[in-house]
Amino acid sequence: MLIRRAEVDGIDGIDVRIGGGRVVEVGAGLARRNGEPTVNARGGALLPGLHDHHVHLRAWAAARSSVRLADVRTPAEFDRQVRDAAARADGWVRGVGWHESTAGDLDRHRLDALTGDRPTRIQHRTGALWVLNSAALARTGAAGSTVDGIERDPAGEPTGRLWRADDWLRERTAPARDPFPATLAALAAEATRFGVTRWTDATPGRSDAETDALAAGWSARYPELVVMSPPGTRTDVPGLRRGPHKIVLDDRTLPSPGELAAIIGESHAAGSPVAVHCVTAEQLVTFVAALEEAGPVRGDRVEHAGIVPPGHAARLAALRVAVVTNPGFLADRGDAYLRDVPAPERDWLYPVRSLLDAGVTVAAATDVPFGPADPWVAVAAATTRRTGSGVVLGPDERVSPATALALFLTDPDHGGHRRRVAVGQPGDLCLLHTPLAVALAEPSAEQVRAVLRD
Ligand SMILES: [Zn+2]
Fold it and tell me: Where exactly are the transmembrane stretches of this chain (predicted)?
């Protein structure tokens, strides 16, 4: 295929030839070969396809068939939405995005009053917690289960709150036929609309069965897929590339730096870099100390780096550990941060500029479905750092739109290598309607004209 008259690296009038899945020629005035399909870029920018470096495909698929509670403003609004969902549902009621700061505290009793006998589960905005009503607790056998994470009252009865028990819950709520493969096609179509040609699925604790389910639903026409996987799980799945070992830190069960260093060391010894989830200051401080003790390997990453206290950018740079940040949260959750995050830490939220200045490799991700699915929303948010209500969070951390876009073209797993449209590079490309400077004046997925894969 010949793409004509594109803007490549800021230069207009460039032709790009793709063959065998790779870019084979880049230059002005390439002659069209007999029968070669051509695309006239009409001066639009040609970029490498975007890589969304941290997504959760199964949760994203499930979120599409759930009631979205993220925009609820009051407890009464929450009650109304959940009650309406119960009236519509013919099986489980499933809600996502609940947060106590707007919708109020939640346990089985409040849910029982809303949905009665209909089994109901509501996920906390962070993904760390599910709340079940009594019908759902009965159906899943939670009262008699010994699995970790089932919160109980002093009498030993489940409160309805289940912490990080997703696998356990999924096994007990799965429909007879898994709808995931069909939904994956819809997710791929949506990603294509955004110019995404590569996903890294960051779901922790992935089993071989989960990898098989992904592989079974995946097609070569979908974005290329990197799957984070614990050491010891299978690697030989066609179409899928193995990613680092995802480690989730939780303030309620935070290991000591020494304990975490041992876990990291084991993973490194098994040949797997680590991707460590750090959203609070405590988690990041613990992780940095642990990695200093264990010693880093190429490909180690911090997921989110939600709060980076002073001094830690330099330590991350010295460790050469990449940060995969989520600027989209500033737009989506910024006003909740203003309410919930104490004043000094607010300036340390989801930094970008200070990390880059310190020499840290920074890449970006949407964390869909926990953040907005559109990477261009994240690009805009990294540029303005504006919350929904218009407050600018950490103005010194703003970056130019070009720098923000580059966060989706940077490879955190290979030393921060920046992908480019160049000979030998994969033929996974994103063509915009306009030159880059025009597109970035108002970053939006509307600017994406076409995506080429292989
Ligand atoms: Zn995540």
Answer: none
Give residue-wise pLDDT tens across range 236-287: 777 789 999 999 999 999 999 999 999 999 999 999 999 999 999 999 999 9
Å from CA of 369 to ligand 1 middle: 8
Q: What's the CATH architecture for 51-58+179-418?
A: Alpha-Beta Barrel (3.20)
List pLDDT tens digits, range 30-56: 999 999 999 999 999 999 999 999 999
Domain 66-173 indexed as CATH 3.10.310.70: yes
How far does residue 45's CA lie from ligand 1's centre (Å)? 30
* CA of 6 relative to ligand 1 center, distance in Å: 35
User: Distance from the CA of 367 to the center of ligand 1, in angstroms?
Assistant: 5
Ligand 1 centre to CA of 203 (Å) is 7
Q: Where exactly are the structural domains of the chain?
A: 1-48+420-454, 51-58+179-418, 66-173
Ligand 1 centroid to Cα of residue 326, in Å, is 10
Question: 93-104 pLDDT, tens per residue?
Answer: 999 999 999 999
Give me the CATH topology for the region 1-48+420-454: Urease, subunit C; domain 1 (2.30.40)
Residue 178 has pLDDT above 90, yes or no: no
